[in-house]
């Protein structure tokens, strides 16, 4: 078993101290995403990072299992999209965290990924979604 796995649920002991220590270690190694079972934990790097380019969109599209690539927001978005397409059932991605944690930016990246993988021709859909969110809650812009 890895000392610092991509999925912390693989650890023998999973308590608050272990989780915090593992997230800190991964953060110091510039690994900002970690799974804990079905949950993706994102730690805000508080700096620009190159994890959201065209290459990443391609690498996280149509993955059979999430273990094929390191943890990433795009896997969560892609997984929800594939579940929607395969089952026809609505899907939901819950983005939660404290103020300044990067929820809005994470959501924008996931929406961009959904725009890349969906057959929609509406190139301004992302802007429309962000505007609706801002109109309903001005703090989110």
TrEMBL record:
InterPro entries linked: Kinesin_motor_dom_sf (IPR036961), Myosin-III_kinase_activity (IPR052409), Myosin_head_motor_dom-like (IPR001609), P-loop_NTPase (IPR027417)
Any one GO molecular-function label of the UniProt entry: ATP binding
CC per GO annotation: cell projection; myosin complex
This protein's UniProt keywords: Actin-binding, ATP-binding, Cell projection, Cytoplasm, Cytoskeleton, Motor protein, Myosin, Nucleotide-binding, Repeat
Any one of the GO BP annotations: regulation of actin filament length
Family the entry assigns: Belongs to the TRAFAC class myosin-kinesin ATPase superfamily. Myosin family.
Protein name (database record): Myosin motor domain-containing protein
Species for this entry: Magallana gigas
Lineage: Eukaryota, Metazoa, Spiralia, Lophotrochozoa, Mollusca
């Amino acid at each position: 078993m890895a000392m610092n796995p991509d999925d912390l649920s693989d650890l023998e002991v999973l308590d608050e101290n272990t989780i915090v220590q593992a997230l800190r270690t991964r953060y110091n190694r510039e690994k900002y995403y970690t799974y804990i079972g079905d949950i993706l934990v994102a730690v805000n790097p508080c700096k620009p990072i190159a994890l959201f380019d065209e290459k990443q969109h391609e690498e996280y599209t149509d993955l059979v299992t999430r273990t094929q690539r390191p943890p990433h927001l795009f896997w969560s978005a892609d997984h929800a999209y594939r579940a929607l397409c395969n089952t026809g059932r609505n899907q939901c991605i819950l983005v939660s965290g404290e103020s300044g944690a990067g929820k809005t930016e994470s959501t924008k990246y996931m929406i961009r990924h959904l725009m890349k993988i969906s057959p929609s021709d509406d190139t301004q859909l992302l802007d429309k979604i962000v505007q609706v969110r801002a109109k309903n809650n001005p703090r989110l812009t």
